[in-house]
Amino acid sequence: RRVSTNEWRKTVADPQVCVVVGGASGIGAATAAVLAAAGHRVVVADLDADGVTTAIVTGGGSGIGAALVRALVAEGAYVVCADLDLDAASSVAAAAVGPGTAVARRVDVTSAAEVRAAVDDVVADHGRIDLMFNNAGISLLGDTEDLTLDQWNAIIDVNLRGVVHGVHAVYPQMIAQGGGHIVNTASMGGLMAAGLLTSYVMTKHAVVGLSLALRTEAASRHVGVTVVCPAAVDTPILDKGELGPVRGRDYFLKGQGIKRPVDPDHLARKVLAAVAANRAMVVEPVQARIAWRLGR
Ligand code: NAD
């Protein structure tokens, strides 16, 4: 089983215990078996201690986050489906099918304390946090002159501070445990500009910058960082054009030169593949990026 750093310190300090590092397979496993047969107390220490990857997905109650929860459970992970909306998170967690487990938790990412408590509980129960998906986000579509200061602050709180809270809570823990991976959901709007989305684009550019900068220094600590920059994805956020008469779905599809929004489950599979390959960025679909670059 996975153990906490403190428990590990006590274990290796115990003169009665034999510790076999790399003991889950091959020569290490054979060594552990011989020692155990000889009557020694043996602790098998291995990266693959129990085979269960632990993950937290914020905004897991809907859209891309829900798809990430489904994909992770299908891969056998233990996943905390964290969302402001506990009912939505519970439905997603209950419906996820696979060898893994999903548990719902109400987490408001604008609260550093709530994000930290979710991370601390996973570490207390499982010894480590392998994957952190800072995915929760809101959009604000409309004329910038109509934005109130409260709206500017609200989108900064969720889309930017929410990601900072996640990074701040997991990064030192991941360094201490010897590795992990942080995935931040930005947007195509984090790579390019789009009118009527000024505040959203600002937060997403910041998330891209945070992610790419962190990635360069985290690599030497065995922590991977991936930033996800999708064009329009088929989720409820597309219909949340809170401001002005412009309907989000039409605006996004036309602006990005794509006929159909991306399927969230397809995107989630791409994201997990990018994590496995430790890629810096996921941009999906490629034709949207090209169209946007050409200024269509
Ligand atoms: P969605 O609206 O379907 O899901 C967002 C989820 O985040 C909801 O369940 C909501 O309850 C939750 N949430 C909102 N505020 C929260 C808070 N303070 N704390 C915790 N949870 C909170 O939207 P989605 O499309 O799945 O969006 C997920 C992420 O993907 C967002 O960061 C969004 O900006 C980004 N994104 C979406 C698209 C798209 O077209 N759908 C494109 C690019 C980027």
From TrEMBL:
Annotated GO MF terms: oxidoreductase activity
Alphabetically ordered keywords of this record: Oxidoreductase
Oxidoreductase in keyword set: yes
Alphabetical list of CDD domains matching this protein: SDR_c
An example Gene Ontology CC term for this record: membrane
Keyword check for Oxidoreductase: yes
Protein name: SDR family oxidoreductase
